[in-house]
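This part of the workshop introduces the protein records we will be handling. A record pairs a protein's sequence with a compact description of its fold. As an example, a complete record with its sequence and its structure tokens follows.

_____
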Amino acid sequence: MKKKLLLLLIIILSFDASAQISFEKGYFITNAGEKIDCLIKNIDWRNNPMDFEYQLVQNGTLMNENIKSVKEFGIYNNSKYIRSTVRIDKSGNNINNFSDEKSPIFVEEQLFLKVLIEGKSNLYQYEKGNLQRFFYNKDNGNIEQLVFKNFKNYENKTGENNQFRQQLWNDLKCPSFTLNKMTNLKYQKNSLIAYFTEYNKCNNSEFINYENKVKKDLFILSIRPRLNNSSFFVEDLVSNSPDIDFGNKLGFSFGVEAEFILPFNRNKWALTIEPIYQNYKSEKAVNGSFFSGREQIATANYNYIEIPISVRHYFFLDNNGKVFINASYIIAISSNSSLEFTSPPNIFSKSVELVTRRNFGFGVGYKFKNKYSLEMRLQTSTNIVADYGYWDSNYKTSSLIFGYTLF
């Protein structure tokens, strides 16, 4: 099974990268004002781009446009960028690089600004690395930066320049806007989007919220029953006692997975956590002795809660399906777990506690219509008699996991 899983992983990882990034219907407007419909390579830019790739027809020639030749481009029902020459303050956000100057230090640059809200008053975003700046204009006027800056004062203490609140208080009027509301306004995307949305509604202005167009479910909860194939092997490192191979046992278990989609790179990365109750029970007749000279019955009863913490990567195939791979760090907590030896007729000889050890898991799966999934997962082996120094053991599990997404 390991070889099959490895082969499947190699096949998946060998997919051409272009299969992961889709070309979507969009447009761009040239310097001459000509609007050209095309298919734009949507890489879900985390940083504001300076150029983009596109095709005029599906599977056509790949071409490139940049900020010097295009004054606007967008992907329908997704995102929009406009070119603007603006004054931007690029003061650092790292406390070690805070300026002792409270006022912004502007430089003039030509940028593609991401449109967040478009209406009577527009909200724009610029992001590059850890730098994030917001811009605005009203009634198609000049675009200005909303000023926010961290700095150090004369006592070498940190302070904040929240001039953006005063800018909005002066320029965007609405009866529902109070001083308390302005004081609580944060220099964050969601907070500013809510403010500009309320302003446009207050002024009976039609507006577009581009973030609503690309709203994505960043939290997913799924139930995941599974079929497990587990094996347990014990070896005496000191005496001549025979090894005990408890063999492979099939078992059923049930998990609930919480998945947190990371909001970049087109939602291809996620973190998951999934508590699962597991049980392995097996008996084996032992000729010779671990603790006596007679034949014994060895009974392994391993009960534990397993908590895989995983990094997941998706490979989008089409609108209905996607392949994913996982790498997991697995924490386990045992309860009433033991390896017992009895001699006929049911004379108790010895009991050894079975303990949990952290290990790793690797899986590959397929998800259909964001609702149903099937995954194969392998775990590295663990020594669950590690506290008994004269013995070594090998406990390992592979699973076939069925998933159903609740929301």
Notes: The helical segments are 2-13, 163-171, 179-184, 189-202, 210-213.
